[in-house]
Specification:
Elements: E1 10-13, E2 17-18, E3 30-35, E4 40-47, E5 56-61, E6 64-67, E7 71-76, H1 83-86, E8 93-96, E9 106-108, E10 125-130, E11 135-142, E12 149-152, E13 159-161, E14 165-170, H2 175-193, H3 210-221, H4 230-233, E15 241-245, E16 248-256, E17 263-267, H5 274-290, H6 294-297, H7 304-316, H8 324-327, E18 331-338, E19 341-348, E20 355-357, H9 362-380, E21 383-387, E22 395-396, E23 399-409, E24 414-421, E25 426-433, H10 443-453, H11 456-459, H12 463-466, H13 470-475
Parallel strand pairs: 1-8
Antiparallel strand pairs: 1-9, 2-7, 3-4, 3-7, 4-5, 5-6, 10-11, 10-14, 11-12, 12-13, 15-16, 16-17, 18-19, 19-20, 21-23, 22-23, 23-24, 24-25
Helix pairs in contact: 3-5, 7-9
């Protein structure tokens, strides 16, 4: 364990290099950077022109770079290990590299530690001494839902956990940190202004309850749609609220900002009076209410089994092995009142929590349930054989086609699973190859039908790729 007192520690960097095509870091090497402004930051070197010139950039994080043109000198961080020095008592000065630069060396001090429950300010870029004695740097990002945080230092949120850092000290302020500080200052100013907000008597002449304004708009909507309710109106989101902004109450839509620690209020700017806002509310919710006609939504009545039976029959046309016993293992559906209005709802098995299907017609609800039933059917029909075409590396819209596998199912039917992604994200989709595809007399005609389900322009393999594959043709029974 290190015994040096980090509070008294000074690091002296003595081996700076000027930017020169003959004297640059290795690709990816992390460096302390002295900018032409005199500020200090750090980043990993990414050369252009295959490293033949001193052009390129230093990467600090996702979309966070420093162009080589902005850099005066660089000093490697990767090439040094301070562990031996930090294990000696009484050390308060460590030279990083040979003492040959005289006045050109740079010193850092004022180190702090998480052990003392001290953390950097948000978005602050810091020089780090790691617990293994190595040097690093990164931009501080506090974890939102737990203690601690991490220093982001490269793309895809590559980071050093606070648990790995022995001591840290801030480097120079930059645009990202300055913007964050200004945001924090603005938040403080806004909080102060909103302690005692004023209310325009013309704008809020019907009081400070937003439901009063919704109800007045509702009266106007009912002239056109007799079924209109307040609940229907508030399906149009975001809903409007009365909130303080810059020291005044406004009609606004409220959302959480990216960091989740304060509200963003988007004020209504379409007029200056309460009656104008009421007219706006009527037009804002008009289409949502129009699509909420209960006579269209529940035209088959309020017995949920009628809708479920239709969805089951529709699904069973292609998914022939589906039976109702399988459906007991998945979502359960009902029609119930939610905030006074009838709604289609679903819950998983017999759990108490439910979600609302926001649909405008009986047909739309049946389609949603049918899709759920199809997923259950595929999950219950186990694969007994598989075939993966071997077609090399395929890139589609920046994503790599990672796998494209055909499966024969226990029932004798077929499905295909497609997986694609890049270095940071990806996903899989599963498609049932419907029986009408196999009614084709030739393999070529089969592919024409199949590619309407899994089109080549969306999933990487077209007819020209699949047609020559004799193994696939045989696997599919042609």
């Amino acid at each position: 364990m290190f015994v040096v007192d980090y509070k008294k520690l000074r690091l002296s960097f003595n081996e700076f290099h000027d930017l020169s095509s003959k004297d640059m870091p290795q690709y990816g090497e992390y460096c302390l950077l002295e900018l032409k402004t005199g500020d200090y930051t750090a980043g990993g070197w990414h050369p252009s022109d295959n490293g033949r010139t001193a052009t390129g950039y230093f990467l600090r994080g996702t979309a966070d770079t420093v162009d080589a043109k902005e850099v005066a000198r660089w000093h490697s961080l990767d090439r040094y290990d301070l562990a031996e020095s930090l294990e000696k008592e009484g050390v308060n000065w460590i030279n990083i590299g040979r003492e040959e630069e005289g006045d050109r060396n740079v010193q850092f001090e004022g180190f702090k530690s998480f052990a003392d429950r001290k953390a950097p300010k948000k978005e602050q870029f810091c020089l780090l001494i790691m617990k293994d004695g190595s040097l690093a740097a990164g931009r501080w990002n506090k974890w939102r839902h737990s203690a601690g945080g991490a220093f982001i230092y490269s793309s895809a949120l590559a980071s050093h956990s606070s648990d790995e850092v022995w001591a840290w000290t801030p480097l120079s302020s930059d645009e990202i940190f300055a913007a964050e500080q200004e945001r924090e200052n603005e938040k403080k100013r806004e909080k102060k202004l909103n302690k005692n907000p004023s209310a325009d008597p013309e704008l809020f002449k019907y009081g400070m309850d937003i439901d009063t304004y919704y109800e007045k708009a509702l009266e106007k909507l009912r002239e056109e749609f007799y079924w209109a309710t307040l609940t229907m109106m508030k399906k149009k989101t975001p809903v409007w609220q009365i909130a303080p902004l810059h020291g005044k109450y406004v009609f606004g839509q409220i959302s959480k900002n990216y960091y989740g620690d304060s509200d963003i209020v988007m004020p209504w700017t379409g007029g200056t009076s309460a009656d104008e806002f009421i007219d706006f509310l009527r037009s804002y919710t008009h289409d949502t209410v129009e699509r909420s006609n209960p006579e269209v939504k529940f035209k088959l009545g309020t017995d949920i089994n009628v809708y479920l039976e239709m969805a089951f029959k529709n699904a069973k046309k292609d998914y022939r092995w589906l039976d109702k016993e399988m459906l007991k293992k998945t979502w359960q559906y009902d029609i119930q009142r939610v905030d006074g209005d009838l709604e289609f709802v679903r819950r998983y098995r017999n759990e108490s929590e439910y979600s609302v299907y926001d649909v405008e017609s009986a047909e739309q609800f049946i389609e949603w349930v049918e899709s759920d039933y199809q997923s259950v059917a595929l999950r219950e029909n186990k694969a007994v054989a598989s075939y993966e075409p071997r077609l090399g590396h395929i890139v589609l819209n920046g994503w790599n086609l990672e796998s494209y596998v055909f499966y024969k199912l226990k029932s004798g039917d077929y499905k295909v699973n497609v997986t694609a992604g890049d270095r940071t994200t990806g996903g899989s989709r599963e498609f049932f190859i419907t029986p009408d595809c196999f009614e084709a007399k030739t393999y070529e005609e089969f592919l024409d039908r199949y590619l309407k389900i899994v089109p080549g322009y969306s999933f990487g393999l077209g007819k020209e790729d699949l047609l020559p594959d004799k193994g696939l043709k045989e696997f599919l029974g042609y």
